[in-house]
Amino acid sequence: MTRILITGAAGVLGRVLTDGLAVRSFALRLSDRRTDYAPPQGLEYHAVQLADRDAVAELCRDIDVVVHFGGVSTESSFEAVLDANLRGCFHVFEGARAAGVGRVVFASSNHAIGMYPRTRVIDASAPLRPDSYYGLSKAYGELLGQLYWDKHGLSSVALRIGSCLPAPVEVRHLSTWLSFPDLIELVARAATAPGLGAEIVYGVSANRRSWWRDEAFAKLGFQAQDDAERFAYLPAMALAEPDPIAARFQGGSFASANCTRAPAA
Fold this sequence. Notes:
The protein is an alpha/beta fold. It has eight helices and nine strands.
């Protein structure tokens, strides 16, 4: 039975993953900074700050795979993302290395490449072009994964998650949407697929309007099942985006110069 640590387990996607992976052949250990979180019955939970290096190292003991979804999850000031998304990510990779963990599945983001225009279709080989301090922190995590593979042989899969929501709520999401079922299957495959090094994978459903090509799906044995197109004819999808900068770039509102906290993924 594969032993998985999920960081950020009390967050929206952490809860989705906990429910989805708990019914599979995994033994779960959960972690988040929240002290008031009540985990599902029978699951191990630890309230830990990612900035606490020793506590994170202890979390990684006797674990096969770390699914790292903890951290600040939207744009904010650099100081706000520093501890959780930079120091915390380092603590996770270093703790995993020291504990002999086999793989880290890292929740990266489309905002690591959010400054590409929507007119361009890219793949995982496209150079990083973060659109925000948040996106910059995700680019750092991807590079950290490459470093730990090259120097220490720690396998990693960085998932460039698009817009992981119950359903699209804006036009941009018709290209970036990742459904909850596709997220669960993608993480399960990323945790268990053999023969991986440091991989970059787009976390996106099979949207016919997608801006991203993902040849890495084959390495994981993953096939997305959902397509945002079935939502394209809802009234909200006909609304024009008011910010011309947001409408130009793949990162949407994160790409705007005056963005300090973006409301949508």
